[in-house]
Amino acid sequence: MPLSPNFGERRGGLRPEFVVIHYTAMESCAAAAARLCDRESEVSAHYLIDYDGAVHALVPEEARAWHAGAGLWRGLEDMNSRSIGVELANDGFEPFAAAQMAALETLLAEIMVRWGIGPAGVIGHSDMAPGRKGDPGARFDWKRLARAGLSVWPSSAVGQGDPAAFAGAAQRFGYPPVADEALLAAFRLRFRPWAKGPLDAVDAALAQDLAACFGPASSFGPASSFDIDQDGQEA
Ligand SMILES: [Zn+2]
Which residues face 64 on adjacent strands? Predict the structure, then answer.
């Protein structure tokens, strides 16, 4: 498979600190590969993983691939310069193949060691672009990745939270400051895809747990630039 021509230099000397997971939303892996390698498409990713687990390296990890587009995570812009993009061949509706997930786990572990990326740095495209992107979608098994130390998942014993604190907590975990509905949809897509109805105390509890464990005040998160009190409110 040819390397994609669609890449450039990472800007400002940035290094990968995140991995962004995508699905291709195309009818076949070959069609996705053709698009990711077509100069006219102006899109690419570092890796494309086929249904059978074959890993195609399209752009060198050192380079800036064009997969993330507009969006933010932890308030950081230019996610293409800050991340490695992994595309999973999937039409957007079907379950992810077992061999494909196994290959993803192996690849993620290697990338995370190479670049010193922790589990909280592995995110979905929908996380950094709520309302604009929905991949890797509700069928993607984030819990499985978290169990393998390749992403994060909230504690199972979180109880009830304060819905008024949801947006602040979700943003401290990393989500961009978007409209409430888009934020809730993106959050549930990853952490509670079976949930329906308005924002509730469980959404809030999950977000507050994630913010506490992986947000800026945690030992796993980035350095804090603001104070956070016991209720999770910004001071
Ligand atoms: Zn995507």
Answer: 8
Residue 83: which H helix or E strand, with range? Answer: strand 83-88
Cis peptide before 163 (omega within 30 of 0): no
Give me the DSSP letters along 114-130: HHT--GGGEEEHHHHST
CATH 1.20.1270.50, domain 7-147, yes or no: no
Q: How far is the CA of 20 from the centre of ligand 1 (A)?
A: 8
Closest CA to 209 of 196, 186, 191: 191
User: Distance between CA atoms of 57 and 195, rounded to whole angstroms?
Assistant: 36
**Residue 41 alpha carbon to ligand 1 centre in Å:** 14
Compute the distance from residue 234 Cα to the ligand 1 centre, in Å.
31
- Output the CA 168–ligand 1 centroid distance in Å: 25
pTM over 0.90: yes
pLDDT tens per residue, range 24-40: 999 999 999 999 999 99
9 in active site: no
State both tokens at 47. 């890796």
69, HSE (Cβ side, Cα atoms, 13 Å): 13
Residues spanned by CATH 3.40.80.10 within the chain?
7-147
Catalytic residue (choose from 62, 87, 105, 234): 87
